């Protein structure tokens, strides 16, 4: 396997992009990996660039009641005060993110960025050089049912009042996250001549030691069991390069809070029964399954 494009940093550094879809325990993984010695963490910077896209900001909702409720939620988030951590969203465009990721980061041995695959598929030229690529996947039934519950909590609307496809792509991508993940995976293989790594979220939850030790062997880092347990709380986010508006949103909506309050990986829950979830997500699940299954067929085992 050929190496990815040469990094501007030391050859001793390990650099990893973690691509995922929402509601895939990726924040728990990011918190865990933050405790690798001499690490540098970039958290959802490409999401910021994606949201700032002027064309995407002009897209319309398909549901007036949802638009009104979400507009109120966004205003409430912007009004959250008292958070000094995080970076100003206005500076975090695609070029800026790429430049930050490609900096030397002297003194750091592990640099990683956790982000959503759908934020980069229309802007592949801004992928950073010198990184391995990891894809964190999760069954679409779990992802999409959780994604809808998140938006229910932010809007206070009942599930029958809206569908995920009522959102503009700034909040719900056209390929539901899975098509974009598969597209990025294929691009990385072709353009970087690189064997991307695929981890299933439930595998990670079931056997974190086995999966992470296998991952560390692949990327060239020594694995230490101490990273499997950590202190609860938000303090770790003060060390992350993270857009401030995401921290404001979490303070209001709590969408990262379960992960930040965690102290270890918990065992995975059962796959929801199709009759127990909002019926409108089932076509989205069915459309996403072929992409998920293609990726899962190549997933990392302990």
UniProtKB/TrEMBL annotation:
Signal peptide coordinates: none
Superkingdom of origin: Eukaryota
InterPro entries: P-loop_NTPase
SUPFAM superfamilies: P-loop containing nucleoside triphosphate hydrolases (SSF52540)
Pfam families, per database record: Sulfotransfer_5
Protein name (database record): Sulfotransferase family protein
Phylogenetic classification of the source organism: Eukaryota, Metazoa, Echinodermata, Eleutherozoa, Asterozoa
